[in-house]
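To assess whether the prediction recovers the assembly geometry, we first specified each molecular entity separately, as shown.
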Amino acid sequence: MSTLRAGWVITQRDLAHWVRQPWAPIFGLLFTVMLLLIFGFLFGGAISVPGGGDYIEFLLPGMLALSMMFGVETTATAMAADARRGITDRFRSLPIGSASVSLGRVGADMVNSAAELLVLIVGGLLIGWRITGGPASAALAVLLLLLLRFAVLWIGIFVGLSFRGEGATMAVQVLVWPIGFLSTAIVSAETMPGWLGAVASWNPLSATASATRQLFGNPTGITDGPLADGAVWLALGWPVLLIAVFLPLSARAYRKLRA
Amino acid sequence: MSTDHTLTAIGLRKRYGDVQALDGFDLTVAAGTIHGLLGPNGAGKSTAVKALATLIDYDEGEASVAGFDVRRQAVQVRRRIGLVGQHAAVDEILGGRQNLVMFGRLYGLSTAAARTRADELLATFDLTGAAERPVSTYSGGMRRRLDIAAGLILTPAVLFLDEPTAGLDPRARNEVWESVREIAGRGTTVLLTTQYLDEADQLASRISVLNHGRVVASDTPAALKRQVGGDRVTVTLPLRQPLDEPAKRLSEAVGAPAVIDAEAHSVTFEVGAGVTALAEIVRALDTLGITPEDLVLRRPTLDEVFLTLTEKEVAR
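The predicted structure of the complete assembly is given in tokenized form:
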């Protein structure tokens, strides 16, 4: 049986989970919507965007990028849980290609994240966010967001396969917060102390956030630096680099299950 | 390799860091039989099953399952085996039927064929009524049965059952035993690991005792029991009756030394054939005019076999 078909069967298993337990993905979405509302309205009044512009317009692409990055947690947790419960071993005892299990995960998480993006975009439009960059640019922005999700998926698969204990997924859940906030997703790097701003600017999340802001035609909060001109290229380069590192590592971690 | 053996392992070795999990593991299992792999925790039972089921690679040795080399022809092996691991590896959120349809499709069945097969298996394992309920609502026994059903989708040549009744109550255990007998009855070879001696005794036609990653004995349950000596006949006499004289007479009658337990006021003889000895003892007691308080014939249990074999191993 082809690896792709087996991957699709495993993807469908996750999609069936949503039908059985719709509350898990709905709460995941509500959480991101809540973050959006907290930053947009609770903190937003006190945050100004360097170079001018409306904070909601600045924030929304950042929240989209942040929600893609937070997806690493979903992936790692699901992967580790399957390994721990012996489901991965059962899949491994079946006559299916060795990439099927990971492909199944990729399919399910990408569908999940695409749905999440859609809800956030519609929600953003409802609270006053506007896309002014033209349909082609907007489509590219969405693709860059999905590319970031695809890249962190492989980090999640690697972590989930390598560290099966609940501790590892806890660590991922805790670590995504400082990594998520130490970026330009929520505030511009130019409002941070110099060194911190530099670190935040080089965060892959910042590249995607800035690139999507440019492509959606939203204020970027950037007046200078590498993200001013090269954000789109960085938003392509960072995920490709992450994939180049973590996809082989994931394949190796899967093979090492045999050791 | 020989074809009347569905499963052969020769000199398998597997090391995890400092632990030699398999240390020259040899096993042959005849087609269509239930073979018990018995051993204490950490003896290497699960490692052996995982190695034979292609889940882990072994460092040294040769193994073949259903006529295919485990290492070089892993895909062919996987098409012919079912693996039921220690944890019930079924999806808890999905229903029983959804689980079986999913595994059926992963075995390469079309969706329609997978559905038909799922319904057959649900009926066989008495799960039709619970087919649509999420597995998280199943009892331990139901979950195990579903787990076993998922291993039988293609009617495998070899079914690996790794401690299938661990953590089940006696009733659920019996249900699982019943299923295992049915499976073997339809021609599937079963390799069953267990820590429970009575389980191996109940199900397996041959038992291999595993200790420290090596098979220390492999035989039928009855022959293994004979290894620790013959049957035991214990005669308990009334308290007013002195022990020494009858003990001597009975000892002559059965041709075995008497082991006297003064506290229990009993005499025990280790004999070759229990029933013959029993008849001799009854006749001798009759001649002596003694009515015993109790008269017991006991075969050695697998527990005794197991302890004897694993102790020998420790002593080495």
